[in-house]
Amino acid sequence: MVFSSIPFLYYFLPAVVLAYIAAPRFLKNTVLLLFSLVFYAWGEPRYVFLMIATVLVNYLLGILIEKFKGKALSKLFMGLSLAFSLGFLAYFKYADFFIENFNRATGLSFKLLNIALPIGISFYTFQILSYTIDVYRGIVSAQKNPVTLATYIALFPQLIAGPIVRYIDVERELVSRTHSFEKTATGIRRFIFGLSKKVLLANTLGELCEAFLMSGEKSVLFYWLFVLAYMLQVYFDFSGYSDMAIGLGKIFGFKFLENFDYPFISRSITEFWRRWHMSLGSWFRDYVYIPMGGNRVKRGRLFINVFTVWFLTGFWHGAEWNFIVWGLYFGVLLTLEKLSLRKYIEKSGALGHIYLLFFVAISFAIFSAPTLSDAIGYVGGMFGAGGIPVYSASFFYNLRNFGFVLIISAVAATPLPKLAAIKLQKSPRICTAIRIAEVPLLVVLLILATAYLADGAFNPFLYFRF
Fold this sequence. Notes:
With 466 residues, this protein is mainly α. The chain folds into 2 domains: 6-177, no CATH class; 183-267 and 348-454, no CATH class. It has helices at residues 6-22, 28-41, 47-67, 72-106, 121-137, 146-154, 167-175, 181-214, 220-251, 269-275, 278-289, 299-317, 321-345, 350-368, 372-382, 393-412, 416-424, 428-454. Helix 6 packs across helix 7 and helix 9 packs across helix 15 (372-382). The relative contact order is 0.10.
């Protein structure tokens, strides 16, 4: 089940909210857990047992890690947690990738497993590991209540598309959290805005991307139009899901950290990754980069640390070589910025923004491709490789059809609308008018999103890869 669907909006969500409100305080986590398991089992019931097994194993390992703290057994149990969780991830997500590449390297023909990828396994695996690692480090105490730990891992708002919520950030709220009309209203507002970003902007931009992929009239400008649309589609899809997750969290008394902070206004790749998918970046920083020595190492070791993290970041996104190349591509750019480039770029004003958007556009061409050879073709097409024309009739046709939503999306991807609203609210009259108009606006957005979904329009789920 996904947030941007009629069953979720008008059947599942009302049911879970009503059950949650009716439940006494000591049963609220149980209600959330049961509904979360139903939510996850909706598409592929058998994989809910994989999640339950993962929760139970790491529940026991967390207790054992804490019990033998400071002893060799604690390290052993931590290693078992890593092996168990990452082993499942490797098997389901990467087994066919390794078999396929082994066959290519050796000329053998081992049969592919063709295993369906459990939705969200990359997200909840990292959440589990943040818990057991922090228990091992003594940052948090092992959770003695299995329902509480299972609720943290399976909590449906952030289960299938993030943000990656760490146990330490919600530890207190899992045990005792407050609810209020203000929190609920803020959560509903955030959810509807996120749903609108996903359905009205991301899905429409996705239609443009599909039009490009189906077109037989590729051109240089059409490639750039596709990459621009894809950048914005992924941003509004992913940030929209994060908004919905944060909003749902507020409704149920949780405060999830922000995951996006207007990344396209950055002036360097370093700044971009501090604003884009922040929960993933901070996870790799705290659990991989810093334990390896971070920046406090010699230059040669620094390069190893950076490229290891970005190799893993790329591989985390998908079991294809283009994702690995995508990760290493950012590793190169970030290394150059660490050496000297960043201080010049960030002082260059508009040039820094152009630099950022250009290289990020290249990265999205690589990221969008099904395979590495396709990625090479996409990047080549952006620069006229193979003698393709500069423009085509398809480019102008799609620019005319989608130009308005592209402009709206480009503006909405910046802080300009938010800054304008803040400035307008300084006037008491305008502030009052905005407050009066807010509820009707939210209702209209919900109706529009519902109409779009009810029409059976284009509604991709981008996180099947993850």
